[in-house]
Amino acid sequence: MRRHLKRLAIVLCILSISLRLSAAQGQTSTANLACHLPQQELSPGDKVTISCDNLSKTSNFQLNIKGVNDQTGGKGTVLVPAVEGNNLVFRLPDDMVAGQYFVSVVSGTNQNESALVRGPLNVMGAPVVDAIYALTNYPAPRGFDFEIAGRNFKSSKEGNYIEIVDLRTLEACETQPPPADKTPCGNVEWKNSRRIFVTGFYPRHYYGPVKIRVHIGNSVSQETSVTFAPLTQQGVALVAALVFFAIAYLLFVLVRRGLTSDLVEGIRASPFTSLFLDRETNSYSLSKFQVVAWTAVTVYSYVYLFLCRTLIQGNFTFPDVSQNLPQLFFVSAGTTVAATAITANWGSKGAGSTQPSFADFISTGGLVAGDRFQFFTWTLVGCIGYVYLVIRMNPETPNISLPDIPQNFLYLMGVSSAGYLGGKLVRKPGPVIKTLSVAKITTPSASTVTSEQQLAALGGGPYAPSDKSIIVALPVLSLNLKGENLDPTGTVKVDDVVLRGDMYWISGQRDPQSGFCGDMTISFNHAAPYLEGKHYLTLANTDGQSVTVDFPIDPMSIDPIGPINADGQAQSLTFKGNNFVAGTTFEWRNPATSATATASGNATNISPKELTVNFAPGAAGAAKLTLISPLQLKASASITVKPA
Fold first, then answer.
1. Considering only CA atoms, which of 428, 449, 436, 542 is closest in space to residue 483?
2. What is the pLDDT of residue 269?
């Protein structure tokens, strides 16, 4: 019996060993598996392929994925992979947290045996866009170029793309430039996990802010805005200048059409001149200048900032106006109004030179005034500085608006304005000549006359000198001046030459309070040099303020005359020129140096631009034609007489 039991035990032992060997032949132990994780960037939802050696398709496997820093002792995430050849294939959960994981392969027939896969499994989080450079983009040679900086990007575009929110997925441009219906488009370079480059990007037909999202697998980044500007800052400045000059041209046309009486010394003032012209003195007004200057500066600045907001930022709203800008306009406009009131009640500044000039802004009656110089200088500094600040502002600044003006600068402008107005109050009004006319020209009736005959020829009154010590020398030219603040004791210059006291005399009725005349006559002794051509009369008051005018206002002139043929017979010759008047006579001298006229007479067929004279030219050589108006004003021209 004992022997039989011993034999049975041996048989059972052999049977057990056989069963174990049979089971070992029917399965692959996980201890013999050699699996390797792929070296790639993975995101939640990605498909993962693990290559393994000695993998049996007949066995069932499970994957245990556990974080490296998981100290809870949990089993981690269990996944069932598919077996494809020698690979285990599975997909990461969409909600998988970013981090580093270890993967274990577990046999489906023996859950107690597992093999740790070589290498960690690195899972990135959802893509994050930290910034886009540049946040405001300006045109490149082709389209726009920008860089997306962030995290959890991939270096391959496979399964990844950039979305232009509310428009379309960013695709490559088929042509350069692309048609409008194919935009937005551009070329994307997936550089690495932190950088994406986009080149040759074309937005839609409109520009401005565009929202961008980065898609990595099933994950998507937050929206990030980037602005595309159709023009650079320099381009916007140029467009602003064009708009400004278009507005200025419109105003120029309106002013030109409205001009009717802005005549300065017989010359019609231009619309530009009329903006600054003081009609009382025919000079430039400083108060008008600072109003026009600040208006032009603020208009250009506002147009420029408006275009920055619309064309660069894509923000279609009006820029704000600084709070103290109205105060500046109040100072500017108030100064102009006050200056006009002072002029109306106190008198004008000196008119100065015959034509307006920029010197009028800092001078009065030809004298530089410190108060005007200061006011003009600070106006220039303020205007130039304001434009500089505006164009140096970053055009990408959100809510860009006109810069504030420092309060102390406003005080400074106010003080300069007060000094300018105070100077007008304390300074005497300057001379202004509104009209000038040739009152009388007295010529000698014979080659020699006595002083009594000369005085009798003057006829007394305003044409005769009140100072009996002045010896009269004919011809005498008397000019009548009408205007304001004319000083009968002032200094007289003709053609910038100061006249001696015996070379002229002044008569006029003084105002008892001011001591000035509004109507006066100046008579010049020995005035032969002043009877022909245009001359300049300067009258300076005792305080140095002066006024300069041309006289006569409309002198006769003869256009250049070509040679004429010598002829013993009288012939009619027609000459052209300016300001010819009825009653004009002529004198012909051949040779030109002859002391007496070789021919004389009345001109005929007289018009303002043309007349006819009849005389015999005489011998060949240089001759001279002199025209004499009824007032005895003259015009001469040299003529060459050719041999017959």
1. 436
2. 62
Order of strands across the sheet that contains 497-498? 497-498, 491-494, 535-540, 546-551
Phi, psi of 243 (to 5 degrees): -65, -45
Kindly report the pTM of this predicted structure. 0.70
Judge whether 477 and 524 are in contact, CB under 8 Å.
yes
Residues 590, 596, 601, 607, Cα dihedral to 10°: 70
Q: What is the pLDDT of residues 577-594, one digit of tens each?
A: 999 999 999 999 988 888
CB 615 within 8 A of CB 570: yes
3-state secondary structure of 195: strand
Token digits of residue 355: 């034509």
Question: Within 10 Å of residue 586's Cβ, how many Cβ atoms?
Answer: 22
Is the separation of the CB atoms in 574 and 611 below 8 Å? yes
Q: 281 by DSSP, 3-state: which?
A: coil
Is the pLDDT at 15 greater than 60? The verdict is no
CB 372 within 8 A of CB 453: no
The rounded distance, in Å, linking the Cα atoms of 446 and 184 is 99
Instruction: For residues 181 and 160, state if they share a domain.
Output: yes
Q: Residue for token digits 């060459």?
A: 640
Cα–Cα distance, 621 to 563 (Å, whole number):
10
Question: Hey, what amino acid is at 236?
Answer: V
CA distance 81 to 67: 18
* Residue 395: CA count within 13 A, CB half-sphere: 30
Question: Cα separation of 437 and 479, whole Å?
Answer: 6
Instruction: Quick: pLDDT tens for 26-68.
Output: 444 455 667 777 767 788 888 888 888 777 665 677 878 888 7
| Structural domain includes residue 478 | yes
Say if residue 546 is in the same domain as residue 575.
no
The residue type of 135 is L
- The verdict on 292 and 217 lying in the same domain is no
- Reported as a single tens digit per residue, the pLDDT across 268-293 is 667 777 778 887 778 888 888 999 99
d(CA 511, CA 520): 12
Percent of the chain surpassing pLDDT 90: 34
> Partners of 607 in the beta sheet?
610
In terms of domains, do 339 and 409 share one? yes
Q: From CA 155, how far away is CA 9, in angstroms rounded? A: 67
Strand pairing report for 144-151 and 263-264:
unpaired
Distance CA 160, CA 190 (A): 9
Residues 249 and 153 in one domain: no
